[in-house]
Design a protein that fits this description.
Layout (H helix, E strand, L loop, with lengths): L5 E8 L4 H18 L8 E2 L5 E2 L7 E6 L1 H13 L5 E4 L8 H9 L8 E9 H7 L4 E2 L2
Parallel strand pairs: 1-4
Antiparallel strand pairs: 1-6, 2-3, 4-7, 5-6
Helix pairs in contact: 2-4
Length: about 140
């Protein structure tokens, strides 16, 4: 198995419903590939020649933690100059991208009601960001 020098991590709040966890994870990781195109591999193709979309070239590790764990991880990511993707509780009530951005923009960073964040960067920096979280079951 390949050991990467970098890590992709998603941290979810531990009080989310199953559908929320899946939805938040999907939204969060979509931001990482656009900000860091180097983490996306080549497109796939089956034996029949049918093409498929490219995906991340390395595993995505999913963690969970309390609201306090997410707040601390957010601060640690920013302190390490890692730009996280964030999903706040307010986004469950919005229905489009413009309203999502407006909901985040309306709240100071330290007061965001985070339900999830995703981060990509050097392995040791990401490990420090998610410190105190546990692997998602």
């Amino acid at each position: 198995m390949t050991r990467f020098d970098t890590k992709i991590a998603v941290l979810l709040r531990d009080d989310l419903a199953a559908w929320q966890r899946l939805n938040v994870t999907a939204f969060l990781v979509s931001g990482l590939g656009t900000a860091h195109p180097e983490i996306v591999g080549a497109p796939y193709e089956d034996a029949d020649g049918t093409g498929y979309l490219a995906m991340f070239r390395q595993p995505v590790l999913v963690f969970e933690g309390s609201k306090e764990t997410l707040t601390a991880a957010h601060g640690r990511a920013l302190a390490r100059s890692l730009t996280p993707a964030v999903f706040t509780a307010d986004l469950f009530a919005t229905g489009n991208d413009d309203d999502n951005r407006a909901a985040v923009r309306a709240v100071p960073g330290g007061s965001l009601d985070l339900v999830g964040l995703a981060v990509y960067g050097p392995r040791n920096a990401v490990d420090k960001v998610v410190k105190g979280a546990r692997m998602h079951p």
